[in-house]
Every structure is written in structure tokens, then in C-alpha cells.
Amino acid sequence: KQEVTQIPAALSVPEGENLVLNCSFTDSAIYNLQWFRQDPGKGLTSLLLIQSSQREQTSGRLNASLDKSSGRSTLYIAASQPGDSATYLCAVRRSKLTFGKGITLSVRP
Amino acid sequence: NAGVTQTPKFQVLKTGQSMTLQCAQDMNHEYMSWYRQDPGMGLRLIHYSVGAGITDQGEVPNGYNVSRSTTEDFPLRLLSAAPSQTSVYFCASSYSMGQGWYGYTFGSGTRLTVV
To answer: B101 — contact with chain A (CB < 8 Å)?
Structure first.
């Protein structure tokens, strides 16, 4: 059974810091990995999708990498801003999408 | 495009009542699924469908029914609501192309309270 782990559960940083959020998964036989953002009381917004054949994807200040062989992905956030405060979830897909429990990020002004 | 639309956004039920959570997508995605999100448990898959007329169970299917008569709609039925079904429910859709599966699009959620 696929298990997805995100540690730590919560993170607080000052504005302007570069961040790395980690995600690990137990079964490397995945089709893709997706990073989502969830604001309190809201739905999930897709940030980045990495297909299994890819190593990384970039969108603006966000960069996600994927190392299938080691079962790891990182989400890099450059020059963090208070507006980045949210919960970040990673999810891996084989036949189904399996989620980690998320990292709640707080960026202090 | 509207994407994935869920209705209602909020609902309060009494124990034993039944109801249907609606989900519709206008992207012609063949894959649709329902998740519930609970504090400390994360998102858990309830049921999913890989196309019209095809459904299957996820991780926590008990107490829920689904059907997929069209590509666009994937309703979730609570047969006899229980307090343990108090949760936030999300519908999601996705599609495939060739050998690859593409990312999921989520609805904004339905917050259900069973009293």
C-alpha cells in the first residue's frame, strides 16, 4: 500500500526565506506526483505536476523535483511571502491518487 | 470553463437521513473521484470512476454509494447519515492521454455536518 509522508506537519518562517518542503513515498511505481495548495476552508489548487519521466517542474517562484528511485519529492519556494501561507500537500498517482497529510506553512511578515 | 462544481457547499443532516452530494465537470475528464478530508487523517478516497458506467471503491467506501451515468456527473449518495460522516467532501477529475495520466482538478468542497 502506498504511503506518502510529509514532515514536518507545520513550519513557520520569516518573509523572504527560501523554503524546501519535503515529500516521501514508499512505492516508486507511480505515474506522476502533484503538489497542491490548500487555503483554510477552501479546496485544493494544483501547483505543479511532475510526470514519472520528468525530474522537475517550475512555475514562477515554485520548483518541484522528483526522485522516483529514492521515493522523494521537494517543493522549493523562493523568496517566501505572507501570501504563501497555506497547507501544501503532495500526492502520488498510480491507479489512484494518494495524499500526504500536508505541511502547514506560515510566513511571518 | 467552470471546472469541477460541487453542490451544496454546506449541509447539516440529522442522523439517519439520506442525501446526495452533486459533482459535475465540464472538461470531458474520464476519471472522477470523491475524497473526504478529516483533521489528522488527510484526504481519503471514497469511490472513483474511470468512465461512464464504471465505478469502484476506494479506501473508505462504507455508507456511500456512487453511480456514473454520464461523463459529466458523479454524485455521491449518503444512504443513512451517521455522525462519523461529518467531514469535508471533495470531488476531483482527471484525464489520460496516451500513456500518461494528467493532474487532478478539485472542486471547492462540501462541508457536511451530521447531528
So the answer is: yes
Give the DSSP H/E element, type plus range, for residue A99. strand A97-99
Tens place of pLDDT per residue across chain B (115 aa): 679 999 999 999 999 999 999 999 999 999 999 999 998 888 999 999 999 999 999 999 999 999 999 999 999 999 999 999 999 999 999 987 765 667 789 999 999 999 9
Q: Whole-angstrom Cα distance, residue B41 to residue B84?
A: 13
Inform me whether the pLDDT recorded for A47 exceeds 80: yes
CB contacts under 8 A, A 74-93 vs B, are 89, 91, 93
> For residue B41, which residues of chain A lie inside 8 Å, CB to CB?
101
CA distances from A43 to A24, A54, B44, B105 (A): 23, 27, 14, 10
Residues 6+ away with beta carbon under 8 Å from B42 = A89, A99, A100, A101, A102
Residue in chain A nearest B4 by alpha carbon: A43
